[in-house]
Write a structure and sequence with these properties.
- It is a single chain.
- This protein has about 160 residues and is of the alpha+beta class.
- The protein has two domains: about 5-75, no CATH class; about 80-150.
- Helices cover about 50% and strands about 10% of the residues.
- It has helices spanning about 25-30, 35-40, 80-105, 110-140, 140-150, and strands at about 5-10, 20, 45-50, 65, 75.
- The strands form two sheets. Strands 2-1-3 form a three-stranded antiparallel sheet, covered by helices on one side.
- The two termini are about 30 Å apart.
Length: about 160
């Protein structure tokens, strides 16, 4: 297995781990990992190393929460930051569900019965969202966080 990516962090930068790889075109032109490092890694970078593809998280849902403070070669996850991302995703999903009801309630003249139904539907959405919020806060790791988001139909 070939180490195909370089990773590093920049002290004091709240941004996530930097991950760079050579493109197939660059490899075909004879560029090396050393060339990549000299081109993209700043002088103040720390924890610079090559990693395998398998050392990188499987997707980028929590990209802004990737953490490179561990001693192992893989990229970890800052759980408090990941929870903030999960809450943002939860809020976006909540707004998607509420928007049509809000529009119907405000812009369309509806019967009193429908207005009561809209209120009930909105309450159900908000109650379900509050449970997801609690579950996100209680998640202890990435697996639990993903399970909450998946179970709620958010990811």
């Amino acid at each position: 297995m070939t180490k195909t990516k370089i990773v590093f962090t920049i002290p004091g930068d709240d941004a996530p781990v930097k991950v760079h790889s050579l493109t197939l075109d660059a490899i075909n032109q004879g560029f090396t990992t050393a060339d990549l490092i000299s081109k993209v890694v700043p002088q103040n970078a720390i924890n610079l190393r090559e990693i395998y593809d398998t050392d990188e998280p499987e997707d980028e849902i929590f990209r802004a929460a990737w953490d490179d403070s561990n001693q192992e070669s893989f990229i970890g996850l800052n759980i408090p930051k990941a929870k903030l991302i999960a809450h943002d995703l939860r809020r976006i999903e909540r707004e998607k569900k509420l928007a049509p009801l809000d529009k119907e309630e405000i812009f369309v003249t509806t019967a009193t019965t429908r207005k009561a139904e809209i209120a009930t539907e909105k309450t159900a959405i908000l109650d379900a969202n509050a449970l997801v919020q609690t579950d996100i806060d209680a998640a202890a790791n990435e697996t639990e966080l993903r399970a909450v988001l998946t179970g709620a139909g958010i990811i």
